[in-house]
Design brief:
mainly alpha
Length: about 375
Amino acid sequence: MEINYNIVSLIDILGLVQGVFLGLVLIIEGRRIKPKLFLGLFLIAYCAELLNSILHDLNILESEPWLLFLPFNFFYLILPLFYIYVKGISNINLTKKKIVLILLPGILEFISYTVLFMLSVGTKVKLHNSESFSNVLSLIEILSFAYSIYYIFLTIKFINKQKTKVEEFYSNTEGKLLTWAKGVLMFLFTFLIIILSSLFLEGIFYDDYIYPAISIINVVFIFWIGISGIKQSKLFVTKIASIKKIDHQQSDVNETNNRLKTNNKDHYEKLIALMDDEKLFLEPNLSLADVSLKLKITQRNLSELIRDESDKNFNQFVNHYRVEEAKKLLLDTSNNHLNMLGIAFDSGFSSKATFYSVFKKHTSLTPTLFKNNILPQNYTSL
């Protein structure tokens, strides 16, 4: 057997080995955080697709036809697995029945290819050389692209919806918005469009330049998914202490609300006092639950109160105070010894990156530009 080694196949082998390794790490992590099991399966299924390309590029299928129709085509399984992962990591628990229904097309696809793989070598060669059978497989593959694109948009829609919820409950959204997962979906969408273009516009790509570049990007992409997935923690996990307090105090809270029946203005004034006097916004991980316990009102009522009185969600409301505090610190010459990270921490931000992002969103200036260009006499509150 003569193996035709080439740069594309070698890069794909690297991607396959790397993806399987990271996928297994995520599956092991799934014992601790269950949704990571599905991300691990997604990564392995995604990388398994490379195996058929590798066998074809190395001319192994021509000399070893018994390897035809390896059941490693997961066109209908990859994106549904990622969808289940995103749901699970966002603390949305799907029932086993729902999971099976979502994965059913992919399971049927795997069974079909397994049956084909079990056929005799002669039968497989005939089917492989049959134009009509190849057309059927091509049609199934093309339909899988539409199926995958559907799940891409379904998952992006869910992530966008979760972003709104996260900002209603947390002042620090770092690591909670699944931005990297949205990037994965956008990459896969672009990749699918490229593949579809290559199918219908023959000759649009040049193998000598495009394919090696795509393979290299794919290797980086696989590594990025694995590392991001390993680092990602489960979302909407409220502090245990807060949960216990809420469970024990919920009846007291409701009783207080019904008994006092104070208007929104009074509650809002108490909230402003907490921010101005106690400077609650300096707590980096301040949550809606924390503030609701302080005010003895439910989280839902507090969220509606902030929205009605300030026209902001909880995240925007707290970060407004943090930006104002940062402005004061930046304009105070006695703080010149502090670097931007120090300013960020002293303002209640959890990281320099978040500080820069939020500050620029509120002022249209970076903290550095604000410090260098805005004079104290020109200072105005947001």
